Protein: GNAT family N-acetyltransferase
Organism: Arthrobacter terricola
Amino acid sequence: MADSQETYGKYTIKRFASAGAGDPGHGQARDWVHAVGFGFHDEKRSDELIDKILAMYQADNRELTGVYVNEEPPPHALHPGFPVATFGTMANKLNIGYGQELPTHQITAVTVRGTHRRQGILRALMTTDLAAAKGSGFAMAALTASEASIYGRFGFGVATFERSIKVDTGRRFRINHEAAGRVEIADPKVLLSLAPEVFQQLHSRTPGSIVRQESYRHHISGAMNRDGSEDKAIRCALHYGSDGTVDGYVAYKFLGWDSKPYTVEIVDLVAATDSGYLELWQFLGSIDLVDQGSWADAPVADPLGWALDDARCVTASDERDMLWLRVLDVPAALSARRYGTDGRLVLGVRDSLGLAEGTWEMMSDGGAVTVREARGEDANLSMDVADLGSVYLGAVNPVTLASAGRIREHTPGASLAAQHLFAVERPAHCLTHF
Ligand SMILES: CC(=O)SCCNC(=O)CCNC(=O)[C@H](O)C(C)(C)COP(=O)(O)OP(=O)(O)OC[C@H]1O[C@@H](n2cnc3c(N)ncnc32)[C@H](O)[C@@H]1OP(=O)(O)O
């Protein structure tokens, strides 16, 4: 990636790669990370921690965009090398169902300093970036949102959900499952090398999953807390399949003797098999002196409740949007997918940014998929590109979006046909926050 810069009104927008200590551009990259922390109300980080973050960004191959004021700031204000806005990108593979993966342009670390907000900086960054991503061959962009009201206008739609659960692991907790493998405690540091391998196994079978960025293995292994220190509270259990290979793990923390009921909080739970998932929960339910497990990243379609004698051991709350998708190239995105059934649909797609606008015919026939522009033909369904992102992984029902007045059905039954087509083989779930 070559560094670039352009002028936007009274600002200069610069794009550059992460840079380590001693590399050219290190000061610029360090100020960028400070600015992101400022935007998300983090405590000021030490230079040592910033350098660790930059090293992880290098491993992710991130592109950093900073927006800088051209005029000299007033006395005592932050120096002009400190960006007033940040925008980060990287690329990873998204599982789009039936074993298919789509290289996806991920957008992260979006901040605009309060004193420069609502002057169109985000709009300028986003529109330029999405067009460039399409130009580089990406059919899909993705993000996770701090607020649900920001990104629909740029064509992003909610494609997966998550929820928080509390699980009563006391006397009522009994999972109807005969263990096929085994669970053993390990030093959490083994996750530094094991976690990406095990995650890859889960990723391969989970629609909606995005390959994780470098920071994950450091955080979940306890090697590096958000403040850079070692997290000594983390524990780890590994799941071994019947052939002895590690195919799951749980990283967890005991919340202390002041937490009532006594609780272990799941930091990360990754299981590449159905039985491994239930056996890791059997393990969590067997921890002595603990009455409850909590997990903030639980799937909405969770087999746990169905495997329990008493499904009311699980209390779910805060169901929320997780992965937002933005289709950049309709024929490329639709033809990359495999569909739940054979069929033909003509979709009219509106896109205020013009990237995906058009009428498109998609046809799935015995596993072969064809997509073509159908200019001038009548659409069976018309929708905004954000709604196409929502239905793409089968987690949002087009019938529901039609009821909400978002999708218009021109052929009776077309939204139900779309639901059957877009269905995937397992409920979509994304365990990667970025
Ligand atoms: C992917 C991620 O990183 S998610 C994290 C997003 N970042 C944050 O939440 C950090 C705190 N907030 C901020 O830094 C800023 O307020 C941002 C990034 C949300 C917005 O930046 P701004 O430069 O002020 O946005 P900009 O002026 O370009 O506005 C773009 C559009 O979004 C709208 N908008 C901006 N922020 C919000 C919001 N919080 N809620 C609803 N609409 C919003 C504007 O009204 C505008 O609409 P329009 O262009 O259709 O008229």
About this structure: The two ends are 21 Å apart (CA to CA). The chain has two domains: 4-160, 162-319.
